[in-house]
Amino acid sequence: EYLLTNSRGLSVLLNSFGAGVKSITLNGKKLILEPRTMDCYQNNSMYLGKTLGRVAGRTSGEISIGEKTFKLKADEDGITLHGGEKDSLSFKDFTGKTFASPDEKGVIFSYLSPDLENGYPGNLLLEVIYSLKEKENIFNIHYHAKSDKDTVLNISNHIYWSIDDGGLDNV
Known about the structure:
This protein is mainly beta. The protein has one helix at about 40-45, and strands at about 1-5, 10-15, 20-25, 30, 50, 60, 60-65, 70, 80, 95-100, 105-115, 125-135, 140-145, 155. The strands form five sheets. The protein has a four-stranded antiparallel beta sheet with strand order 1-2-3-4, with no helix packed on it. Strand 2 (about 10-15) and strand 3 form a beta hairpin. The longest helix has 6 residues, at about 40-45. It is globular and about 55 Å long. The two termini are about 20 Å apart. The mean pLDDT is about 90.
């Protein structure tokens, strides 16, 4: 796990499993729904704070690129959710590397998704870059990806924000 903190009271806890955000607090106040245990984080079907993909959302279980059609890993209804449910990027171990400057600090998570993993073409190198500004409460998520074949990609994150007065129960 990687803990990023700044001088303004913002704290972000990251995990390499699913390149995810486990916790965000501001002056001790929880800002997102957090898993109670590591088992809950790793196995929960709510994708708590994790990176989604190769395609975030629902697809029909197949994709076409040019003249080729690729069958994706799908559930019993023929739907591919968030890139392949329990086999998606949300359930992969990423490699983490920290970086820091006087203005910000962060973690770069990387994962090589092999050609046809869950049916998606191309060896895809994905980087998920989390950064926290030191003097401003700005937390950024950036994605960088490169594939050796034409492919589809729609990466996102599945943070559940608490927009009320902190009333979200942890799961």
